[in-house]
Write a structure and sequence with these properties.
This protein has about 100 residues and is mainly α. It has a domain of about 70 residues. Helix content is about 20%, strand content about 5%. It contains three helices and two strands. The chain has a two-stranded antiparallel ribbon with strand order 1-2. It is globular and about 50 Å long.
């Protein structure tokens, strides 16, 4: 099974973003892109109902299951970087880590 996702980031008015626009993905972007996720096996649904809260459930499951994981670990392959308290709206990672 392969899932291929193409994403185009646009401004709120639908225009293409420019180099001066400040934007970023949320942590775990593949999880947070979807509201609902349903998995079937032989036409039988095998996932629990998430009530259109899949993105929240996936994010919290990750935080609960791997709370002490080194940020330089495999979680970066899922595009997860721990937030720094007080810098959650900063897009410049260098200034957020000092």
């Amino acid at each position: 099974m392969v899932l291929e996702v193409s994403v185009r980031i646009r401004a709120t008015d639908g225009a293409a973003i420019t180099q001066d626009d400040r934007c970023a993905f949320a942590n775990l972007p593949l999880h947070t892109l979807f509201r609902d996720c349903e998995i079937s096996l032989n036409q039988k649904v095998i996932t629990s109902d998430t009530d259109n809260n899949y993105s929240y459930k996936a994010y919290l499951d990750t935080l609960i299951q791997f709370p002490d994981t080194d940020p330089g670990s495999w979680m970066q392959s899922e595009v997860y970087f721990p937030d720094t308290s007080g810098y959650m709206n900063h897009l410049n990672l260098d200034s957020a880590r000092t």
